[in-house]
């Protein structure tokens, strides 16, 4: 019940959008006392409870006597984190990564305010721990790492119960849900119930980047079984031990979940994450006109890739309209690869007035996709080459990646295949013959081991003149002679927080293609010419809150223009439509939650 009061206080605060976000934190109503408060990570301040608060809340004697300030607690945590880094030096990467994840996870379980503050302030260091790539390792080892639940689990066994189950979630208000069925976790395949780590990591990024109130987030696992034989045989596996539901049975579970969410929180936004391709596309089409939802792998990824692709045009000193002439080879015809091509095509059509995809080449595990392909996937069909388009190049159905790169001489080679190392030495060397003055290599698959190539390999084999981006973080590459090969992180984390936040703050009924395009354009225009010339396509993760505010505002304004914005709290659609661009950014920023200890007031 305390959560009701807390959200009332917070919406009161949120409604005063003209106030600066640095205002003194208002009091927080709490309906519990004593040890129950210490065990609630939302209220717990550990040794930070002032003496008067200890008296008021029945905490006297339950803590060591000295009061430690928030700042001191912060320093203490960071010191223990840094000493862990020092003490684990030289140990295998996986061991170090999991140790870092554990120390952060323990803080998350104990004291959310401190956890989110250290996360926000050190996002560049901590994103690789709580998000990609370590989150992949955590998912792989989830059943062994499991200590306490986080988020909700809806399983095939819960059919018919979801409408009541949703009320088991203790928070009165939920704004943002990330949902997975665990069927395609990063490039690691079907991890069943263990995929819950992905929604948890994505929502941590929502809090850090978009300032979504952590009390209003909900990570969800839809456990419909797994086809991963190893997991089915693992005695520690925590999910349903049955093959995945298919067809109508599967869809009826997702339908029931979506209806239940909508019944309790009609304004909540649902982000679909890491669904295998067939369900990723099908659920997007099924729900996008009925609910406020999007698929991050299809749409978020596309926006980030498009922003990067537009950056590579600028890096060549060409006008953006030249994007229509860029030859782009996309390796991987799954939800992400097809999403990128679809959005790129929309961008070409917007720029040149005609939707020509003649410069796009799409490959999957069977090589170049052409209209000759047997059992051509309908989703890939629009990008399949006709014989006429490729015979002049000496290519044909199923041509290998090396052949395609050698013959096409693409401006951009973009990997979303999930296959580590597929951009091998021969492929990368072939990129030296690219028709671009600054060839681009995007190895976007996650986690690190699944990247199509490493940054060092790309600069070594394709040349120093390339622009490089990867989905998981790599260190910049020392090219010698004082030169640095810049590594960009082309990850959907640059966009999904802003898409969610912008949609939330305007009360979007649905999320349209135009809102996605606006997000991508905003990210694309974020960088200066000087940065682009240095091969820097995306801003540093350090300023993710600023980027998210800009993206959120762009999404919001597009929603208003598309007339899908219904208003948020006491800010109605008319008020939204009268905001200038700067006012919109201000509004978005003022609505970002920021972790500080609020004075706790007990109420029965
Ligand atoms: N950087 C990002 O922001 C981002 C976003 C989304 C997805 N991804 C990554 O992209 C990868 C793919 O995701 P998805 O959802 O599209 O998966 P998917 O399973 O839907 O598609 C994978 C595609 O790769 C193709 N493929 C497999 N082996 C291949 C090979 N040897 N050569 C060429 N193609 C091959 C498959 O045929 C399929 O078309 C994953 O690793 C995921 O982590 C990255
Ligand atoms: O999770 C990520 O890091 C990006 C993307 O959503 C993916 O599936 O790989
Ligand atoms: Mg994903």
UniProtKB/TrEMBL annotation:
Cofactor: Mn(2+); Mg(2+)
Location of the Malic enzyme NAD-binding domain: 298-560
Catalytic activity: (S)-malate + NAD(+) = pyruvate + CO2 + NADH
Compartment(s) where it occurs, according to its Swiss-Prot or TrEMBL record: Mitochondrion matrix
Free-text cofactor note: Divalent metal cations. Prefers magnesium or manganese.
Quaternary structure and interacting proteins, as annotated: Heterodimer of two related subunits.
PROSITE patterns (UniProt xref): MALIC_ENZYMES (PS00331)
Malic enzyme N-terminal domain ranges (all copies): 108-288
SUPFAM superfamilies attached to this UniProt entry: Aminoacid dehydrogenase-like, N-terminal domain, NAD(P)-binding Rossmann-fold domains
Binding positions for a divalent metal cation per the UniProt entry: 273-274, 297
Keyword Ubl conjugation: no
Organism for this UniProt entry: Sesamum indicum
UniProt-annotated binding residues for (S)-malate: 184, 446, 491
A Pfam family matched in the record: malic
Gene Ontology BP term (one): malate metabolic process
Gene Ontology CC: mitochondrial matrix
Family membership noted in the UniProt record: Belongs to the malic enzymes family.
Annotated protein name in UniProt: Malic enzyme
GO MF: malate dehydrogenase (decarboxylating) (NAD+) activity; metal ion binding; NAD binding; protein homodimerization activity
Family matches, as InterPro entries: Aminoacid_DH-like_N_sf, Malic_enzyme_CS, Malic_N_dom, Malic_N_dom_sf, Malic_NAD-bd, Malic_OxRdtase, NAD(P)-bd_dom_sf
Secreted recorded as keyword: no
Record's keyword terms, sorted: Metal-binding, Mitochondrion, NAD, Oxidoreductase, Transit peptide
Residues forming the catalytic site: 131, 202
């Amino acid at each position: 019940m305390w959560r009701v009061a807390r959200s009332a206080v917070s919406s009161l605060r949120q409604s005063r959008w003209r106030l600066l976000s640095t205002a003194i934190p208002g009091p927080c109503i709490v309906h519990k006392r004593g040890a129950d408060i210490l065990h609630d990570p939302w209220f717990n301040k550990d040794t930070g409870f002032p003496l008067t608060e200890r008296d008021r809340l029945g905490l006297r004697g339950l803590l060591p006597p000295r009061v430690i300030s928030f700042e001191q607690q912060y320093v203490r945590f960071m010191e223990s984190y840094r000493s862990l880094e020092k003490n684990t030096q030289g140990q295998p990467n996986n061991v170090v990564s999991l140790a870092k994840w554990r120390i952060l996870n323990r803080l998350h379980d104990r004291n959310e305010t401190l956890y989110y503050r250290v996360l926000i302030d050190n996002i560049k260091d901590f994103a690789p721990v709580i998000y990609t790539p370590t989150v992949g390792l955590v998912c792989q080892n989830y059943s062994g790492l499991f200590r306490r639940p986080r988020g909700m689990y809806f399983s095939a066994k819960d059919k018919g119960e979801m409408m009541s189950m949703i009320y088991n979630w203790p928070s009165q208000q939920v704004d943002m849900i990330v949902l997975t069925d665990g069927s395609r976790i990063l490039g690691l395949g079907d991890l069943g119930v263990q995929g819950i780590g992905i929604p948890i990591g994505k929502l941590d990024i929502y809090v850090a980047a978009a300032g979504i109130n952590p009390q209003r987030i909900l990570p969800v696992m839809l456990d419909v079984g797994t086809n991963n034989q190893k997991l089915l045989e693992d005695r520690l596996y925590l999910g349903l031990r049955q093959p995945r539901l298919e067809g109508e049975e599967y869809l009826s579970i997702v339908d029931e979940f979506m209806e239940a969410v909508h019944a309790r929180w009609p304004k909540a936004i649902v982000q679909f994450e890491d669904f295998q391709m067939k369900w990723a596309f099908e659920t997007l089409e099924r729900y996008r006109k009925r609910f406020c939802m999007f698929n991050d792998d299809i749409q978020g990824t596309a926006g980030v890739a498009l922003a990067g692709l537009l950056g590579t045009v600028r890096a060549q000193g060409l006008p953006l309209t030249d994007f229509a002439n860029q030859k782009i080879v996309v390796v991987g015809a799954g939800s992400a690869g097809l999403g990128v091509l679809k959005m790129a095509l929309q961008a070409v059509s917007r720029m040149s007035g005609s939707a020509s995809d003649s410069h796009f080449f799409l490959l999957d595990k069977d090589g170049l996709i052409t209209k000759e392909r047997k059992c051509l996937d309908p989703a890939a069909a629009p990008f399949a080459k006709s014989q006429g388009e490729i015979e002049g190049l000496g290519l044909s159905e199923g041509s290998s990646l090396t052949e395609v790169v050698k013959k096409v001489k693409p401006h951009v080679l973009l990997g979303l295949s999930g296959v580590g190392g597929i951009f091998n030495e021969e492929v990368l060397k072939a990129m030296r013959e690219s028709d671009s003055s600054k060839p681009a290599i995007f190895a976007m698959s996650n986690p690190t081991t699944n990247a199509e190539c490493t940054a060092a390999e790309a600069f070594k084999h394709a040349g120093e003149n390339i622009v490089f981006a990867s989905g998981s973080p790599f260190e910049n590459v020392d090219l010698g002679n004082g030169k640095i090969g810049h590594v960009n992180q082309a990850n959907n984390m640059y966009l999904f927080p802003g898409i969610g936040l912008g949609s939330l703050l305007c009360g979007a009924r649905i999320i349209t293609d135009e809102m996605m395009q606006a997000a991508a354009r905003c990210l694309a225009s974020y960088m200066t010419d000087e940065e682009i010339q240095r091969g820097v396509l995306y801003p540093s993760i350090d300023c993710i809150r600023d980027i998210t505010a800009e993206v959120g505002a762009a999404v919001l304004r597009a929603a208003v223009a598309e007339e899908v914005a219904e208003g948020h709290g006491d800010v109605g659609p008319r008020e939204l439509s009268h905001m200038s661009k700067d006012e919109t950014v201000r509004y978005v920023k003022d609505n970002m939650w920021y972790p500080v200890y609020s004075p706790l007031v007990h109420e029965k």
